[in-house]
């Protein structure tokens, strides 16, 4: 069966946008990994203690929490592409802030620069990952596609963050601290300009402005997953962010490039495994991706790894085990299992998220993610200074077990989460409405000439055959033409503003409408349209109406959903004598008769039952 040209074009456009978003995310991620390695190694070289180095990232994580909380709400209001580009611009500024002379690089100043970098990183990450949800559609088949898209985006991001570790260490050794920062800032700025040109505006905007209170999730599945995410990423960062690189440099005496190269290879491998997670975790027969049970089992397996590394390092001297091989083998095992866990979590948040509130849901989730990183980063420096690397690993084990415990409450499937999260079907559904005529006539100039004797203006009533104006031809051999009304109606718009002005042939002169054809046209979400059908009674209150609401009846229902919005359009006939103005806006409050929630794409195949009355009121009331 051939694919329609329109569908093929949309598919190609979706892939192009996905690749553009991913490429921009890659470029940002390289700078994010590089700046972290630059700060850790350069400030350790300046004599900062491990805890002081950890504190340099305090504002990075604190403002990451705030950014994820507010960023999802901001992305829902102004669009995900704009928030992504704001993040890139802030990262350029943060990189340039660190190029000042060493005497300026106080702890407070560096913390401020890292705060800006934290805001930039989480704006960029939230925007990129939430955009993926908008490109995969809905339905069971889309779940597997979503898992693949998210895994590739996140896995490739982590691989390139590892590359960023190496880039940061290599630039530090080759060019010095400041030249490395200038190089990173210039490259990211160029990428930002390219993505601004290639990506459309408005992606991810909610159809209605999101109130700020919606930044807090009221979906149980998202709340449990966010709490598990907090401990999962705290478990990684509590030993990986500060403790591990400082241990490799100060205890094992590795050089900068060796530390950066090793951590880079680890993160790259971790990213490759994460990108390949869909091949390791196959969708079920219904095409669904991982579930809450997958997250639980993954966390239980992960808890064994840091506990095993800690035990091996403690027993190593007695067993003649060298610490370097223990760390290398342990890190490989931890990276593989952690990557799969992270891929499952990244998929589940988008699978659980409501399509119209994806930016808000993802922002809330990554707020918890940033909180876990904050706790892990602070504890990484503090616990390493007090208890060494082994202590950090035991804390990591405890954090993973906490994530496993919280995963017990995750739904078995994303669809079950959607059912659990769905509030009781609202008895009234708000929708926009407008007064429109269904019978219109447009009168055009049949020849080029001058308009004469225009006898009507907007709002004038006309009768069938009534002379409306004359066209006196400019050509000597042409005959004069007279335009007449085709039927009884009113003048909606007149485009004749100056008597005697020349108009070209086929110029639009007058628009007429039949006042008996006025309807109230409104649309509702396709998944909620089952309770409405032709013949259903509607009560309407519009501007200028007095007394009891006007009783109307729905006279027409569009047979298909609008392809761009997934909404279904309805019309209710208006009385001609009421004098409603064309274009008058209103609000429709629909009370559905059937409390079903189905994927909008399936509704066209289901007969629509007769519903109960709806209530229509003016938007200004």
From TrEMBL:
<dbReference type="InterPro" id="IPR047769">
    <property type="entry name" value="MFS_ArsJ"/>
</dbReference>
<feature type="transmembrane region" description="Helical">
    <location>
        <begin position="23"/>
        <end position="43"/>
    </location>
</feature>
<keyword id="KW-1133">Transmembrane helix</keyword>
<dbReference type="Pfam" id="PF07690">
    <property type="entry name" value="MFS_1"/>
</dbReference>
<dbReference type="InterPro" id="IPR011701">
    <property type="entry name" value="MFS"/>
</dbReference>
<feature type="transmembrane region" description="Helical">
    <location>
        <begin position="294"/>
        <end position="314"/>
    </location>
</feature>
<keyword id="KW-0812">Transmembrane</keyword>
<feature type="transmembrane region" description="Helical">
    <location>
        <begin position="256"/>
        <end position="273"/>
    </location>
</feature>
<feature type="transmembrane region" description="Helical">
    <location>
        <begin position="364"/>
        <end position="387"/>
    </location>
</feature>
<feature type="transmembrane region" description="Helical">
    <location>
        <begin position="88"/>
        <end position="112"/>
    </location>
</feature>
<dbReference type="InterPro" id="IPR036259">
    <property type="entry name" value="MFS_trans_sf"/>
</dbReference>
<protein>
    <recommendedName>
        <fullName>Organoarsenical effux MFS transporter ArsJ</fullName>
    </recommendedName>
</protein>
<feature type="transmembrane region" description="Helical">
    <location>
        <begin position="230"/>
        <end position="250"/>
    </location>
</feature>
<feature type="transmembrane region" description="Helical">
    <location>
        <begin position="393"/>
        <end position="410"/>
    </location>
</feature>
<keyword id="KW-0472">Membrane</keyword>
<feature type="transmembrane region" description="Helical">
    <location>
        <begin position="326"/>
        <end position="352"/>
    </location>
</feature>
<feature type="transmembrane region" description="Helical">
    <location>
        <begin position="55"/>
        <end position="76"/>
    </location>
</feature>
<dbReference type="InterPro" id="IPR011053">
    <property type="entry name" value="Single_hybrid_motif"/>
</dbReference>
<feature type="transmembrane region" description="Helical">
    <location>
        <begin position="181"/>
        <end position="199"/>
    </location>
</feature>
């Amino acid at each position: 069966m051939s694919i329609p040209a329109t569908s093929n074009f949309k598919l190609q456009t979706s892939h192009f946008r996905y690749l553009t978003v991913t490429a921009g995310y890659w470029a940002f991620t390289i700078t994010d990994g590089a700046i972290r390695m630059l700060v850790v190694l350069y400030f350790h070289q300046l004599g900062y203690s491990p805890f002081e180095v950890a504190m340099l990232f305090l504002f990075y994580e604190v403002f990451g929490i705030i950014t994820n909380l507010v960023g999802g709400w901001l992305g829902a209001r102004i669009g995900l592409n704009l928030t992504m580009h704001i993040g890139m611009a802030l990262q350029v500024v943060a990189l340039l802030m660190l190029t000042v002379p060493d005497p300026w690089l106080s702890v407070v100043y560096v913390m401020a620069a890292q705060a800006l970098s934290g805001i930039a990183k989480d704006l960029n990450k939230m925007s990129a990952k939430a955009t993926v949800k908008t490109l995969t559609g809905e339905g069971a088949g889309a779940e597997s596609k979503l898992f693949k898209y998210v895994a590739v985006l996140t896995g490739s991001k982590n691989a390139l963050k590892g590359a960023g570790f190496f880039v940061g260490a290599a630039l530090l050794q080759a060019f010095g601290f400041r030249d490395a920062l200038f190089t990173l800032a210039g490259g990211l700025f160029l990428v930002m300009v390219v993505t601004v040109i290639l990506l459309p505006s408005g992606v991810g905007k909610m159809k209605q402005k999101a109130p700020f209170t919606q930044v807090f999730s009221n979906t149980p599945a998202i709340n449990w997953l966010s709490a598990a995410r907090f401990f999962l990423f705290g478990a990684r960062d509590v030993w990986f962010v500060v403790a591990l690189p400082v241990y490799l440099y100060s205890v094992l005496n590795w050089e900068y490039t060796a530390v950066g190269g090793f951590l880079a290879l680890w993160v790259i491998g971790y990213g490759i495994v994460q990108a390949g997670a869909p091949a390791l975790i196959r969708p079920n027969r219904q095409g669904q991706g991982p579930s809450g049970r997958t997250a639980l089992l993954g966390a239980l397996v992960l808890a064994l790894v840091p506990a095993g590394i800690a035990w091996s390092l403690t027993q190593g001297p007695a067993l003649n085990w060298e610490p370097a091989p223990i760390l290398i083998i342990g890190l490989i095992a931890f990276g593989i299992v952690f990557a799969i866990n992270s891929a499952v979590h990244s998929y589940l948040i988008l699978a659980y998220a409501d399509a119209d509130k994806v930016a808000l849901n993802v922002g809330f989730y990554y707020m918890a993610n940033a909180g876990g990183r904050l706790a892990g980063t602070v504890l990484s420096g503090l616990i390493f200074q007090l208890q060494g690397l082994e202590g950090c690993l035991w804390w990591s084990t405890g954090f993973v077990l906490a994530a496993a415990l919280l995963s017990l409450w995750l739904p078995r499937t994303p669809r079950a989460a959607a059912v659990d999260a769905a509030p009781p079907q609202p008895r009234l559904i708000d929708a926009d409405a407008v007064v429109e005529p269904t019978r219109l006539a447009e009168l055009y100039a049949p020849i080029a000439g001058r308009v004469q004797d225009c006898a009507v203006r907007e709002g004038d009533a006309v009768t069938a055959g009534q002379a409306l104006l004359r066209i006196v031809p400019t050509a000597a051999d042409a005959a004069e033409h007279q335009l007449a009304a085709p039927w009884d109606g009113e003048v909606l718009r007149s485009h004749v503003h100056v008597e005697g002005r020349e108009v070209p042939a086929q110029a639009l002169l007058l628009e007429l409408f039949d006042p008996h054809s006025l309807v109230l046209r409104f649309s509702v979400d396709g998944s909620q349209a089952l309770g409405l059908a032709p013949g259903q009674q509607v009560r309407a209150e519009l501007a200028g109406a007095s007394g009891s609401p006007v009783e109307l009846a729905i006279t027409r229902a569009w047979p298909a959903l609008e392809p761009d919005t997934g909404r279904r359009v309805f019309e209710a006939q208006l009385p001609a004598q009421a004098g409603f103005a064309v274009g008058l806006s209103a609000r429709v409050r629909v009370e559905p008769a059937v409390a079903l929630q189905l994927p909008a794409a399936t509704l066209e195949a289901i007969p629509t039952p007769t519903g109960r009355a709806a209530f229509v009121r003016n938007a200004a009331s």
